[in-house]
Amino acid sequence: MTRQRPNILFLMSDQHRADIAGFQNDPVVRTPVLDELAQTGVIFNNAYTPAPICIPARQSMAAGQLPRTCGCEVFGEDLAPGHMTFARRLSQYGYATVACGKLHHNGSDQMQGWTRRIGDGMSVRHDFIEGRNLEAFRDLPVATEHKWSQAKEVKRAGIGQGPINGHDAYTLDGALRFIENFFAGPYYDRATPTRPLMLMVSFVRPHVPFLTTHDKFTYYLNRVAPYVDESAFDHPFLGSRAVTPGVDVSEREIRRATAAYYGMVEGIDQDYGKVLEALEHVGQDLNDWIIIYTSDHGEMLGEHALWEKTKFFEGSVKVPLIIRLPGPANAGRIVEENVNLCDLFATICDLTDVPAVDGLDSRSLLPLLNGESSGWDNETVSAYGGTHLGHEARFDRYENLMIKRDHLKYQYYGPEMPEVLFDLSRNPEETSNFLDNPDYADALAAFRIRRDELGYGPNASADYKNAGY
Asked: In 3D, which of 397, 390, 396, 398 has the Cα closest to residue 127?
């Protein structure tokens, strides 16, 4: 008899800063649901996004490939139709793959391997419409801004509903309805609980605009410790788009934005709890499930006088990651090795006995889940921008690359800007650039070789195909 493959619950958020969680010892935020998952699962303390911005990060995670490998290097690009994703791979092996909420596919293939999608936010960018009449589109008004400036985002944060909260309410309702029908089927007896399921519930919170309920806002307002004494880092990119406290925004406005953000984090925790309760209500034993929680990237939240993402500072590029396996064997384990969201593809395949595919930038995390770290290369890569463009949209092209190995974090920003080297063991605040320190000469040389292998820099490999894991 073929062994029943485990069900998977994939919980995801957008822009959740990795250190704002109870299981990461934040003394203020209330995240009991995620804390319980962390206590009964495995915490990855050094998990990183493959790109510190929504679309490339999500496409790379789905494809198990870095942005340069899968061809999604900037905001607006999407995977080619039919691209292999972990959802497509599991569906090929009998899984019902159901995604509720945000996936951020903008191309003509809106499913990208999922057998069912629930929620709003599904739309095809005009760039991807086949056979479109360029003359007709040239005369149409095209929105150039889809959000406020970062300073205005801070100023407008506070109490409110907002589009993000409405989107997530729609997602939650769809997820709860699906769970009841899939496992109970109270009408027409059409439940299919014996089919293996991967259910993703993907919220947009705590993404801007930062708006939360009155109760949450007033709870956090005088408890948070906002970044109010920050200044921009001395670098053309890392210091760009700074929102200076006391100049661009007031300390009170920073506190309000921070409180609203905390309220949104608590809100997603509460909604994840409703999903878990719904599964238990229809008779599911969650101890038999694989449960994953992560986010696409972090949030600077005023640190280094920055907000939102795109930077390779820890606040932006690091993500929360919890994986809970069936059974108690791995409960409470903490993994310190560097890992990447791309690694989830191979991991999910490994955990479900589904053969992985070639050409991935994905390493199975199963050994680390089981406490075996020998042989792990302890590298993680994040990138944003490049020269590949898969459709007709026009972007300013640039090359931002981060390679982290052990506690050192190297960054390349093209020929016009200086490289950066952080040593998180000596300077976890990321305020000092150790690039010119002779103690790091050998490490810097090794990083530059690896940069070239990854297809970046003045000596970039012309034969780049993937990360070579």
From this structure: 390
